[in-house]
Amino acid sequence: MKERFNLFLGNLKNLLGKSALSKIVFIAIGISSTIWFLIRVIPKPQRATYPCMRAAAPIMSTFVIYLLTLSGSIFAFKKAKNHFRKAGYLYATAFFAIAVVCSLLFFTNKTEVANASTIDINSVMSNSPIGVEHGIFPGRVTWVFDPKVATWDGTNKYWWDEKSTSQVEADKMLENILKSITGKGTEAMAWDALFKNFNSEKKKIPGGYTNNQKIAVKINQNNTLRHADTTGLNGTPQLIYALLGSLTKEAGVPQKNITIFDASRFITDNIFNKCHKDFPEVLFVDNEGGNGRIKSTYVDKAIPYSVDNGKLATGLATCAVEADYIINMALLKGHIGQGVTLCGKNFYGATSIDRNWRKNAHDNFNQDPQGKDKYMTFTDFLGHKDLGGKTILFMIDGFYAARSQDGPPLLKDKWRMAPFNNRWCSSLFASQDGVALDAVGIDFLRAEWPDLSDIAYTEKYLVEAALANNPPSKTIYDPERDGTRLKSLGVMEHWNNANEKKYSRNLGKNYGIELVYVPINAK
Q1: Are residues 176 and 107 in the same domain?
Q2: How far apart are alpha carbons 322 and 347 in whole angstroms?
Q3: Does the N-terminal or the C-terminal CB of the chain have fewer CB atoms within 10 Å?
């Protein structure tokens, strides 16, 4: 019996001695993670919810368990061996059993760590695209950076006034982004290509825009309580004006066929007065109406959702339902609950929610600490026939980006990573693929502000959307409940790193996202 025990102990020592370099690396990372976690969390416990702390916590706990089980098994084996020598078989057996249990926990813990690492890698999805790309250039996202468009220094009250935000540069940015997305030489040609591609891919009909067709532009006016101007970060007036000019003068869309709307909030004076002056026939629709705006009406039960979505409103703005095309002009911001507010969440303002959103709050944000797969409202938004299904162009206004959904842009929140270099984000992002665009938006926000509230697993709605025909949650996505299951809504992946910002197509692959960078006055 003693010989068998010694043989078992020797085999265990040999097993534990393998992969010395790996163990050294593991121990070094474990010690570093533990020290970092304790230094950060002990003074301020709420930091434990930060994404970086969530990432460190499993490593720290694994390391602690590793030490406890390893030391416990070695201690118990030594005790068992000593008692065998002294013929104290009862105690020897007891310590041997303890040693076996600790060893099992040790090896089981290592297996769980490997599985957890695999899950983390898959959730990050760096250059591991899923889904089906859309667009003239499938998966293409264009990013235009122009530091001259946003120069607010806090001297003026409003970040959006003409002295702080340039109309000339906004026009240039929109022109460049349209030409880059389509590969065309002029704005007019770019719009024609967008309409033709959309009609061919989504409507299965030839041809481009016709004069009787309506376009609804969903902007984000979340920080509004009235028509009066606000310092809050809402849609940029210069970008909205640039879009109206491009649609009417370059795409040939009659003013009367264009609607600027946010059915849940207010179109403020800075937008309405600037745009209405030169585009008097364009319609402006908001939650209250009056002062030249039109009060939104709704089509009841237009979006019943794929599953029971609690008390979330099921009506959709009539202007969206009646539109032939939609342009989704989102903002680049963090958001409590979901982590970000981009194109997916921007559609929330097209529903029949009351101005008091608490009466119609959606409760399926992915805040599970382990990123549990589940049904996501934003996937329904991106796939609904009258929302994402009609969207000819997805845009993210990043002229002035913000950490939070509330309040104005803050001078202390100028962007530090290259190429911003302590300047405003001064960026415009656009794509025909809404999933790809939001994926890029998440990468930028997470890289610049890794401590954003609820940023962990924020891309879950995009994973569901990319795999809408067979999502991880196993939800049957059919937002109209007409028996037609959604297909993939776009392509999802993360870039390789924040320095290079390269996606799969940037790395020479023939599948995935392609981020096209267009710098203007960027030196």
Answers
A1: no
A2: 15
A3: C
